[in-house]
């Protein structure tokens, strides 16, 4: 079977595991960043979520700074900063400051959803209006803030001007595919929880892509779930942690990340199972051979430029091993 040479990167929502607290979740986030850096991963992105007691990724830029501080060369970024919650100028100043301290290591993934419920979005108080609709203008503002001095308006981000921090457009539907294509920016699709529009979004982005000063050709990253273990049987057990994570989402409950269980059918109803499985259908699962086979099949259809992996595995050492197995697969080992 042909080797799948493709860059791989990491997405971390920074979940709190059962029996742990927020500090342990932050420490685990840094520990995984250090481990995947040693493995040769391209980038390590941290999500933004609010009013979710089971995730510590609310102040994303602070977590990015903390991760940069405790790693040496891996690129660290946001997956993503949810622009409806933030003034582009404040984002530019924060990221411009980090880029000044840690040059050529920072990336900015931008999302158009608030990353929370509407009541919490209102409490974040950026605007009482629907700032989702200002997303294209906000992205443009950030491109300008990070650009050269001569292209700036009267309001500038200091530090920020001339840092040229790479910007990525995130999407979980087709909307952002059009924007990423029009602006000539790299596009990251959230297949790890919203696979329904993946096919269509990838096609739209590639068909409509306009070359820009940032990118000559489309650059398509797909984020997917990876549960890689020593055997298929072990993976079938470990995946129950991820299944419980998605059951949490389906039920609207906030239970910390759970250890694996023997039988999910004792926990979820049939409709809950179908809903959770629909959200997590784009998952690489199994032994190294199984992962290789599934990734090869995926690439034969989609030919993406990069895979971003999220692994909901309870045991931190097994989680690291999952990332190691994926890296070995793409390295042909």
Spell out the helices and strands N to C.
EHEHEHEHHEHEHEHHEHEH
What would the CATH topology be? TIM Barrel
The domain count comes to 1
Based on the coordinates given, report the CATH architecture: Alpha-Beta Barrel
Averaged pLDDT, please? 94
- Beta-strand percentage? 5-15%
Radius of gyration: 19 Å
For the record, the CATH class is Alpha Beta
Percent helix, as a range, is 40-55%
State the shape.
globular
DSSP E strands, number: 9
Major sheet size, sense and barrel closure:
8 strands, parallel, barrel
CATH homologous superfamily - what is it?
Luciferase-like domain
Descriptive account of the structure:
With 333 residues, this protein is α/β, with parallel strands linked by helices. The chain has one domain: Alpha-Beta Barrel (TIM Barrel), CATH 3.20.20. The protein has 11 helices and 9 strands. The protein has helices spanning 22-39, 60-69, 88-101, 118-124, 135-145, 175-183, 198-208, 232-251, 270-279, 288-302, 316-330; strands spanning 8-12, 43-46, 75-82, 106-111, 167-171, 187-189, 220-228, 283-286, 306-310. Strands 1-2-3-4-5-6-7-9 form an 8-stranded parallel β-barrel, surrounded by 8 helices. Strand 5, helix 6 (175-183) and strand 6 (187-189) form a beta-alpha-beta unit. Helix 1 runs parallel beside helix 11, helix 3 runs parallel beside helix 5 (135-145) and helix 8 (232-251) packs across helix 9. The longest helix is centred in the C-terminal third of the chain and has 20 residues, at 232-251.
């Amino acid at each position: 079977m042909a080797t799948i040479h493709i860059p791989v990167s990491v997405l971390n929502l920074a979940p709190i595991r059962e029996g742990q607290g927020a500090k342990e979740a932050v420490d685990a986030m840094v520990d995984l960043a250090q481990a995947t850096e040693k493995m040769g991963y391209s980038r390590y992105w941290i999500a933004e979520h609010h009013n979710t007691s089971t995730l510590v990724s609310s102040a994303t830029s602070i977590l990015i700074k903390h991760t940069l501080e405790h790693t040496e060369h891996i690129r660290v970024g946001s997956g993503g900063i949810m622009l409806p919650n933030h003034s582009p100028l404040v984002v530019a100043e924060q990221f411009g400051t980090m880029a000044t301290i840690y040059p050529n290591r920072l990336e900015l993934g931008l999302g158009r959803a608030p990353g929370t419920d509407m009541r919490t979005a209102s409490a974040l108080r950026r605007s009482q209006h629907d700032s989702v609709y200002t997303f294209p203008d906000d992205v443009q503002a950030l491109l300008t803030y990070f650009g050269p001095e001569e292209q700036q308006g009267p309001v500038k981000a200091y530090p920020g001007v001339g840092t040229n921090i790479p910007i990525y457009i995130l999407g979980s539907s087709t909307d952002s595919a059009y924007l990423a294509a029009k602006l000539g920016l790299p596009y990251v699709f959230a297949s790890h929880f919203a696979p329904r529009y993946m096919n269509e979004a990838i096609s739209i982005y590639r068909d409509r892509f306009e070359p820009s000063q940032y990118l000559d050709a489309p650059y398509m990253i797909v984020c997917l779930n990876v549960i890689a273990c020593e055997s298929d049987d072990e993976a079938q057990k470990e995946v129950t942690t991820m299944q419980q994570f998605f059951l949490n989402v389906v039920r609207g409950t906030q239970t910390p990340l759970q250890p694996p269980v023997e039988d999910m059918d004792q926990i979820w109803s049939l409709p809950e199972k179908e809903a959770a499985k629909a959200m997590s259908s784009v998952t690489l699962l199994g032994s190294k051979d199984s992962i290789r086979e599934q990734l090869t099949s995926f690439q034969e259809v989609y030919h993406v430029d990069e895979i971003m992996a999220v692994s909901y595995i309870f045991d931190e050492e097994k989680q690291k091993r999952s990332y190691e197995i994926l890296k070995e697969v793409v390295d042909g080992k």
